[in-house]
Write a structure and sequence with these properties.
The complex is a heterodimer. By secondary structure, chain A is mainly alpha-helical. Chain A contains eleven helices and no strands. The longest helix of chain A has 39 residues. Chain B folds into two domains: 150 residues, P-loop containing nucleotide triphosphate hydrolases (Rossmann fold), CATH 3.40.50.300; 89 residues. Classes of the chains: A mainly alpha, B alpha/beta.
Chain lengths: 267, 338
Amino acid sequence: MTLDVLRYEGEHRLKSALGISVAFTLLAMLFVATAPLVTTNVAASAQFKQIMTELPQPFIEAFGLQSMTSLEGLLAGEFYTLMWAVFFGIYLAYSAAGSVRGDIDEDRMDVLLANPISRTTILVETFLSLLVPVLVASVITPAAIYVGTLFIEPSIAVEELIMVHVLSIPYLLCCGAIGLVLSVLLNDKDTAQNAAIGVLFALYLLQSFIPVTDYGWLANIAPMSYFDANAILLEGTYDFTSAGILLAATLVLMAVSQFRFTRMDIQ
Amino acid sequence: MVAIEVNGLTKDYGNVRAIESLSFAVEDGEVFGFLGPNGAGKSTTIRTLMGFQLPTDGGATVLGHDITDRSAMIEAKRQVGYIPAEMGFDEGVTGERFLRYQASLKGDTRSEELLELFDPPMDREIGEYSTGNKRKLAVVLAFMHDPDLVIMDEPTSGLDPLMQERFYEFIRDEQAKGTTFFFSSHILSEVQKICDRVGVIRNGHLVDLEDVETLLERGGKRVSVHVAEPAEPSAFAIEGAHDVSVTGDEQSAQPTAADGSGNTQSADGGEDTSSGRDGTSVSFTYTGDYNALLEHLIGYDVLDLDIEDAPLEDVFMRFYGEVDPDREPSTVGRQADV
């Protein structure tokens, strides 16, 4: 395996990877810059304390209110849980959903398949090219956050900052794998991409709101349940079992995609 | 040894039967034309032979490899070049970058030489290419690994006439070096120019399989001639003329345009119907001797003359008649190895 497809597709993703990284950096900077204000003025105010005692506990947890008292809490509760996990996850699922199906729809798959290369190789390497935006953004964003905190009062624990990114990689790959399955199951690029957005968002809602109901166990199917930025950044606990579950789910989804892709007619 | 052997190949798309029980063989070193009107099943056959889709029934081998065996087909493709009908090249990269990508996948022994013959603008992005330039790039990509067999789906569409001639010449040179060609076309004259043998496909059935000389006799030209004097269809009942039709002002002596003949000039209004541009349009399909045709025409005051290849569908109608898609073909060509 000489990884030619991966290198080519990865090169294609480099530009958007840099764009994504810049977007996340700017967003993160917004949190870092406003952190001193939020953590000292707002969270320490009498009104906020009153709200915290009056609101029911599940409500406080759902909105991550208890985490507003520190920079780590702000980043974990808002930036990493919402921006990074949900939006980056959706972006990767969307990209993956457009990959194989897009190549088929636009006749690029014919040109590729005319070469002595197996469909499995094409599928796996196309999927792995998602690592380019994942890795680039996972290096640039924490680096920028770290540099940003040098200019403000509260500092940030570097190890936990790195670990939140490391442990988000299996989660992000799993989101991409959901998109990949849709890419080979659905017959149209737009449909696959829209479905990817819908599925990811539905899973996020499921994970957010179903735990307080009697069907709480259903939240276990959402990949978001296996990536807890609060636990990493606030408590410094690293859940490698959950990361393993996400990687296993990724492999299962890839196997399903491979089964389908190697048997389907390219029309 | 046969380069391609097709045995009872059938492909359904849901309820639609695209090709049915195709059987033929392409011998090593020959140029085999796969001729048929649009929608006849040419691309379906080619896509099945390339392993992009699995046959519903029957089978085929390409360079001895079973088309339903994926790993065998990977081996086959090391020696197969392919020019697709729709050239799905990445629009966002330069021709140079895409060529390097393809080279990494299948090898490159002769792209330099090919780029001298067909010279697409390699440093421009493919998205800016004209269809002709994409075709040139497709040719380079199909031959760069020096394949033994080249499968082409309507390879000359979009090439200008000069480049088409260069391409035909190139195919002859490659054939002389032992390369086998299988290509589809809906243009009779193209097939006549370069093919040794031709399979004719219509409505998913192979209706005929013959050498190119036989087809040459059957092809014919569409002759449209505009003459100054009135003419009866019977006046053009010369040998080799079929389906003679006469339109225009057959009574040109009458100055009125109300003859209802559908003459375009009189319908224009304001045209002087008694001018020298008036006359008779005669059109027919001609399969006879050209000298005889010219000698016949010399007796007329010819205002305009157009001779072109007869549309394939006309030729098919004349020689093969209507083909009922639900019926097994009754003609020859069930098995090609002769």
